[in-house]
Amino acid sequence: EKAGYDHFMLKEIHEQPRSIRDCMRGRIYPQEGMVQLGGIKEYAEKLRNADRIIIVACGTSWHAGLVGEYLIEEYARVPVGVEYASEFRYRNPIITERDIVIAISQSGETADTMAAVELAKERGATILGICNVVGSSIPRLTHGGVYTHAGPEIGVASTKAFTAQVTVLTQIALYVAQLRGTLPQSKLVELLTTLQDIPLLVEKALNCDEATRYIASEIKDATNAIFLGRGIGFPVALEGALKLKEISYIHAEGYPAAEMKHGPIALIDEEMPVVVIATQNSSYEKVISNIQEVKARKGRIIAIVTEGDTAVKGLADYVIEIPHADEAFLPLLATIPLQLLSYHTALLRGCNVDQPRNLAKSVTVE
Ligand code: M6R
């Protein structure tokens, strides 16, 4: 059942080229610059006229929501708020009938996310779901939705469900952009063409198994780690930190790279691994100066870089290359080495990778 892999997590990491492809099947038409999402097309008018979109989720699904915020605001120009379901439900939130609430949940059974959906529904919002488990509770509560079709995810640490959620959110961002006319047709064609090829690039990103295993052997005795990213790379840093802490029990924090100097920089010394998302995109130069700040304090830099990069290579202690693609697709590619880095680190520390202590696959209590 593990298809020859030692753990479900490793199998699920390697399934991602396929699961991402499954998630796009019948939904994108690159040549026409068109996205079709059957499960939400009934709400096209609502999406066209929405004042804002509120995303509710927990854990890794919440990180996917942050990526969604970036993509929907960038391409569809609708304001997006991303909320921890557990905070949203107890806050007497302001919700109107012109709001769209998107609930993201792999299991479709997370208690807090369900309660947030019920609350928003009572208050008249249109509720859409992004879930993986077909027929689970959240899809039954929502008005419409888009399944991720990633297949069963057994490892407690979410991997292929995350990349599928991000794939769905990318499709929703481009669908709403198409409805609202916020992107030139040529840009839609270009982005959808790249999206269609993402499974091949993810396949390439998976080549870092050896490199991540070596870096894992170098950081396995650390007690703390920091993950830094900017823009769309920030939620990737959060996700990398969550993966590491949940399966290796190394305390890890994700931070927006520029926030480091407002506090966490005090933690940096030669013992501290600092994982930086340093790919060539709009924040590249800024990230390089953040790397220099870490280096000046003797932090050990592990950088995720674009294939062929030289500037970061000259500064970092370790680099992991990922293929080049438009910035919109950074989360789908940069998350892959972080998943593998956590996996190998946990393994070297003798941890139970698939079933970390104190955690359940779905959190059905509040
Ligand atoms: O099933 P859900 O997506 O609603 O679950 C949400 C979180 O419990 C989940 O993502 C959790 O954070 C994972 N163990 C992270 O790997």
UniProtKB/TrEMBL annotation:
Places the protein is found: Cytoplasm
Main location: cytoplasm
Domain SIS: residue ranges: 43-182, 215-356
Positions of the catalytic residues: K361 (for fru-6p isomerization activity)
A GO biological process held by the record: fructose 6-phosphate metabolic process
EC code: 2.6.1.16
A molecular-function term among this protein's GO annotations: glutamine-fructose-6-phosphate transaminase (isomerizing) activity
Enzyme class: transferase
Reaction(s) catalysed by this chain's protein: D-fructose 6-phosphate + L-glutamine = D-glucosamine 6-phosphate + L-glutamate
Subunit structure: Homodimer.
Protein role: Catalyzes the first step in hexosamine metabolism, converting fructose-6P into glucosamine-6P using glutamine as a nitrogen source.
Protein name listed in UniProt: Glutamine--fructose-6-phosphate aminotransferase [isomerizing]
Residue span relative to the full protein: 246 to 611 of 611
